[in-house]
Fold this protein.
Amino acid sequence: MYAIVLTGGKQYKVSEGDSFSTEKLDAAIGDEVALPVALLVDDKGKVEADPAKLKNAKVYAEVEDQYKGEKQIVFKFKKRKNYRRTKGHRQQLTKLEVVEITADGKRSATKKATPKPTAAAKKPAAKTQTSPDKKTAEKKPATKTSASTTSKSTSKAATTKKTADKAATSPAKKAAEKKDGDK
C-alpha cells in the first residue's frame, strides 16, 4: 500500500515503514503527525484518486529527527561591475517514518505508535565524584616566584626611562637648543 502526500509544498510517494525528510514540522521527536493524502492511495492494486473519497485519507507518521540539511551556496555575480555576493543557507528538516496509511482516516488498533526512547534516554548518566577529598587534593595553591617579581620591576624601570627620553626630546626643548646653537 502506498500513497502520495503533500507536505511542505512538495509531494512524496510513501508506503508503510518508509522514512523520508520534509520541511520542518512543529512536532517533537517521537510525536506522531497525520499528513493528508494529496493525490492517490493504492491499496493492493486498487487505486483511489477521487478527491471526494480521499478527503478523509491520512498518512500517520512518527517524527524521528529534527535537523538541518546540507548548506546551499547562493552566489550572485555581475560581470564588469565588481559585484559579487555569496550567501549560504541550511534548510530546517524533519525526518518522518510512516507508521500507517488509511483510506478512510480510521486507525487500526494494532498499529498504534509505540513511543521510542529518545536520544537523551539512551545516553548513560554522567559520572560524579563520590569523595570531595580527591577534588581538594588535586588542586595545589599557586606560589609566586621571585623571577616574576624581578621581571616586573625591570619592565617598570625601562618604561620610566623611555618616558624620560621622550620628555627630553620635546619640541619646546628642541627649539631652545636650536636657539642656543645659533648664538
Summary: The CA atoms of residues 3 and 95 lie 17 Å apart. The chain has a mean pLDDT of 78. The helical segments are 119-122, 132-138, 146-168, 171-182.
